[in-house]
Automatic annotation (TrEMBL):
Record has Iron as a keyword: yes
Cofactor requirement: Fe(2+)
Alphabetized Gene3D superfamilies for the sequence: 3.30.2020.30, Clavaminate synthase-like
The entry's keywords: Dioxygenase, Iron, Metal-binding, Oxidoreductase
Gene Ontology terms: biological process: carnitine biosynthetic process
Keyword Glycosyltransferase in record: no
GO CC terms in record: mitochondrion
Name of the protein: Clavaminate synthase-like protein
Taxonomic source organism: Trematosphaeria pertusa
Pfam families: TauD (PF02668)
Family note: Belongs to the gamma-BBH/TMLD family.
Positions of the TauD/TfdA-like domain: 204-453
An annotated Gene Ontology molecular function: metal ion binding
Amino acid sequence: MALNITTSLALRALRSNAARAGARACRAPIRSPQRAFLSSFWSKTSTVNSARASAEQASAAAPQQEHLVHDATNAGQLDGKPARHVAVNIDGDPRVFDTVFLRDSCACPQCVDPDSRQKVFQTSDIPEDIEGSCRTVIDKQKGWMVEVVWKNDVPGYGPEHRTRHSIDWLRRALNTELELRGGVRHDERVLWNNEIITRDNKWVDYQDWMGEDEVLFHALSHLNTYGLLFLKNIPDSEESVVDIAGRIGTLKDTFYGRTWDVRSKPKAENIAYTPQFLGLHMDLLYTSNPPHLQLLHSLRARTPGGESFFSDSFYAAHQLHNSSAFHFRSLCTFPVTYHYHHPTHHYHYTRPTIELYPYPKYSEPTNLAIHRVNWSPPFQGPFEARIGGENQTTMRNYLAASHAFEKVLSAEENMYEYRLNEGECVIFDNRRVLHARRAFDATKGERWLKGAYVDDDVFFSKLRVLDEQFTGKWIADGVIRPAVK
């Protein structure tokens, strides 16, 4: 709802005064935006700004005094009455916050355990009739802060409890909300074909990976950007893949084990354990949370053949969208069933080929918001939906779309081929990069890879920690956020 002319003029004057004073102030606890800045406005504005300037001068003149310097006039608290909303001047603009948000976000030692950093109350503990009144204080380290005094606080908290938020933190909270609501994602991923990945491919020495956090950070950033990374000079040990994965975090334990061997054997329970050709696919799509990373360490490479090759499914999905938005949409909507059905294990899951983030914007071809791709033909089960009927075209639409998608995926110019040598390891994003293997002659030597998985939560946790350490930022839900301090 637009403010009326009188309110608008009042706001403009208040912003001007606040800017001249050089402060960002809590304007008022309010009950509606229209009445936020009118109460006692003309009589108090000049007094507020004068007092704020005096407080700043006193703080500068006596830097060794108490850590917090309170604004003597309650920093623009215009009516002094508790309310369900509070208006704060941020960069010259009044921004309205619900007191529930301000209370729930309280990070004082009474509300957040200093050691575990976990909340000691629940959002559901906050009374629905909670109200707050605010003022600003000056923190010599954090600058201007909003201090809220509560009426009808969470049970168990006394009248002495205060909540303080820095203006900078409130600004970031607003920006994060706006970016999340806007649905435009920050995306550092580089889509690649053979030419691009050949040019940009990255190799990391094992000792540097194990011993240098900055090397690890750049390696994981590259892995997140391209979905493909190689390591070299790895010790000839079955435990090496555990050490490599352990630098990221906890390994994912599956029914294959914490680690597993890729080598040919008779009566194999998986086609990967044969010398046969293995087409482009992803692992464990028949589980509810397939692994994010797959690691394959080459322990023996003494047989002809067996080259690995990789394809960027995100690149292929973008290419498909450019050529046929209809095929792209078919892959986003048609349910494909995957299964692993053996005497001792029975896994079953249905998912579309292309999964999107919640905020796709199809009007922007460069922002398709692709989250994951699911493509694993060897482990497909029978379709279970939209399988018949004279007037149903979805099955045929999916068939046409899958033909088109596979053609792009397996095009020679879109695949990267490499034969892993002994002492080398490939790490790839199992929810993006498809992998395959050429047939080999198991009678002429040994081919042995040691494999492991790492989940998405583990990977992104490590990447965020390193991102904060080396860049002062981190990313979640497509939004860049400052380091947590």
